[in-house]
Amino acid sequence: MKKILKTILLAVAVCTTPLMAQDYRVTSDKDLGAPFDSYKTYSWAKQVRTANSLAYAINDAILKAKIQDAIDHEMAARGYKMKTNNPDLLVNYRIFEEPVEMTGYEGYFRDSEYWGTDEVTNNRLGMLPRSTSTGINDNTTDYYFDAGTLLVQIVDAKKGVVVWQGYASGVLDGDKKFDRDPTHVAKAANMIFDEYDIVLNQ
């Protein structure tokens, strides 16, 4: 399926890098107006800490722990500190085993199961499958995720808006299921965060 990623942000830079060792593809968006120099701490979004998951996303506790470990490693390598109370950034992710087409809206995604009510502006940040009716027809953006996609999003916790997102597609094992090998999960996370070109001064 043709991969299409249209930005949901007003000012973004889009970078695409083919992965070397695996047949993955990595894409990222960055809000060029976000104050990245001021971000020092992060925490996980509420969805990460609950068992809730939508039907089209994988909800596997062991796999989620592997992904969280890999993302924690990448954030720490860039100088960010975990802070559960009043962090600068919130991090969330989704795992798609099957190909899926999503609809986003200008400035936000919609899905109450993805971000907590106090984590985003207007409680309207998230994602919905293309077939879901939202009553909003203007400013739509289509996202096509291939099978085996790991999506990572980072939100400015004070403003409640996405400032960076990246995803790797094609993270599949020999049975065409999402690859749960910890080494491959870490590699996918590493290649996603290779697009996050910010390292804090130590």
Automatic annotation (TrEMBL):
Coiled coil: none annotated. It comes from the Bacteria. Keywords: Signal. The keyword Signal applies. Residues 26-196 form the DUF4136 domain. It comes from Arundinibacter roseus. InterPro entries: DUF4136. Residues 1-21 form the signal peptide. This is DUF4136 domain-containing protein.
